[in-house]
C-alpha cells in the first residue's frame, strides 16, 4: 500500500468509528481520540443559531461555519465536500429552499448511511448523498452553483486535485466557501507522523500561503479569507506525542495552527461577486485575521 492509499485507509477507518458516535462522545474526549477514535472537536463552531441546523447531523467535526459565508441563494445547487452526517447540507438546504438542490459527497460508507437516514427522517427529497472520493468527484461538469466544505481538505493527500475538481463542477461564475486547517510554521515530526493527528485534521494541514496558492493555480479569482481563528491544542494532548522538551520547543517555535474560511470564484458567468470579509492583501498587511472594525472574527 502506497503512502496516499495508507492515508486514505486511516481516514476511512477513523471516520467510520466517528459515524457511530454522537457529538457528546466526541467532545468528552476533547479530540475524540479516546477508545472509539475521533477528531478535533475543539475546533468546531456552534451551528445552533443557523436556520436548518439539525443536532442529529452535528458530530462536532467542523472547524468553521462555511455555509454562513457561502452566499447561497434560493434555487441554487449546492455541493458539500466531506458531508459527514449531513450537518452543512441541511443548513445549505434552508438557504437554497425547496426549489434548490443539495448534494453531499463523503468518502466513508458509514457516514453516507447516517446522512441518508437523517435526510429521510427530515423528509428532505432535494438533499442527496453520494459516496465518493473528493479528488475524483461523482458530479457532472458545470452542474453546481456553490461548493462548501468544513474541515475536510486537510484530510486529502492531493489537495490540488480537489481544487481542480471544484472548478470543474462549478458553473461559470460559481463560487466556494471552505473552512479548513492551515499552518504558519512547521509541526514537530512526531505530530506529522501520528495517524491520530492526521485524522484529527492537524498533521495533514499545509502552510496557509501554500493552500491559497493551490486555489490560485486551479484558476479561481476573487480569493478572500472570510474568517480566521487560532486552534489551540491542549498540552495534555500534545504530550501524548511529544516529550516535555519537544513540547517546550514547539511552544517556543511560535508555530500557528489556524482555522480559515476561504471564498473564491470561478471566472465567467453573471453571478454577482460576494462582498469579501477581508482581502488577501489586507490580511498580509495587517497580520491579523480581520481588518480593523470588520467584525468578521
In short:
The chain has helices at 3-18, 23-28, 66-69, 87-96, 109-122, 159-169, 189-192, 195-199, 208-218, 235-238, 244-252, 280-286, and strands spanning 77-81, 101-106, 127-131, 144-150, 170-184, 206-207, 221-230, 256-265. With 297 residues, it is of the alpha/beta class. The chain has one domain (3-267): Vaccinia Virus protein VP39 (Rossmann fold, 3-Layer(aba) Sandwich), CATH 3.40.50.
Secondary-structure topology with pairs:
Elements (H helix, E strand, L loop, with lengths): L2 H16 L4 H6 L37 H4 L7 E5 L5 H10 L4 E6 L2 H14 L4 E5 L12 E7 L8 H11 E15 L4 H4 L2 H5 L6 E2 H11 L2 E10 L4 H4 L5 H9 L3 E10 L14 H7 L11
Helix pairs in contact: 6-9
> In terms of quaternary structure, what is this?
single chain
Distance between the ends = 42 Å
Share in β-strands: 15-25%
Compressed to H and E, one letter per element, the order equals HHHEHEHEEHEHHEHEHHEH
Which structural class best describes the helix and strand composition? alpha/beta
| CATH fold topology | Rossmann fold
Return the average pLDDT rounded to an integer: 83
Q: Name the overall outline.
A: globular
User: Total helix count?
Assistant: 12
CATH superfamily: Vaccinia Virus protein VP39
Low-pLDDT sequence parts: 28-40, 272-297
Amino acid at each position: 500500500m502506497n503512502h496516499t492509499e495508507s492515508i486514505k485507509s486511516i481516514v476511512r477507518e477513523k471516520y467510520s468509528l466517528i459515524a457511530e458516535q454522537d457529538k457528546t462522545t466526541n467532545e468528552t474526549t476533547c479530540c475524540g481520540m479516546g477508545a472509539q477514535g475521533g477528531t478535533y472537536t475543539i475546533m468546531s463552531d456552534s451551528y445552533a443559531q443557523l436556520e436548518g441546523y439539525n443536532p442529529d447531523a452535528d458530530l462536532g467535526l467542523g472547524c468553521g461555519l462555511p455555509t454562513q459565508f457561502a452566499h447561497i441563494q434560493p434555487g441554487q445547487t449546492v455541493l458539500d465536500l466531506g458531508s459527514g452526517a449531513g450537518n452543512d447540507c441541511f443548513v445549505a438546504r434552508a438557504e437554497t429552499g425547496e426549489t434548490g438542490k443539495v448534494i453531499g459527497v463523503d468518502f466513508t460508507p458509514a457516514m453516507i448511511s447516517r446522512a441518508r437516514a437523517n435526510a429521510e427522517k427530515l423528509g428532505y427529497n432535494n438533499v442527496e448523498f453520494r459516496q465518493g472520493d473528493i479528488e475524483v468527484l461523482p458530479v457532472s461538469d458545470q452542474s453546481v452553483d456553490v461548493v462548501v466544505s468544513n474541515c475536510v481538505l486537510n484530510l486529502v493527500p492531493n489537495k490540488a486535485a480537489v481544487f481542480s475538481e471544484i472548478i470543474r463542477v462549478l458553473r461559470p461564475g460559481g463560487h466556494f466557501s471552505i473552512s479548513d486547517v492551515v499552518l504558519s510554521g512547521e509541526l514537530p515530526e512526531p505530530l506529522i507522523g501520528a495517524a491520530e493527528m492526521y485524522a484529527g485534521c492537524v498533521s495533514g494541514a499545509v502552510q496557509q500561503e501554500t493552500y491559497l496558492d493551490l486555489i490560485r493555480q486551479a484558476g479561481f479569482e476573487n480569493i478572500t479569507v472570510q474568517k480566521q481563528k487560532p486552534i489551540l491544542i491542549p498540552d495534555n494532548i500534545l504530550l501524548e506525542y511529544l516529550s516535555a522538551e519537544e513540547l517546550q520547543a514547539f511552544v517556543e517555535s511560535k508555530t500557528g495552527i489556524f482555522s480559515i474560511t476561504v471564498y473564491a470564484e470561478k471566472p465567467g458567468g453573471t453571478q454577482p461577486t460576494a462582498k469579501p470579509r477581508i482581502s488577501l492583501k489586507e490580511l498580509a498587511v495587517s497580520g491579523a485575521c480581520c481588518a480593523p472594525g470588520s467584525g468578521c472574527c
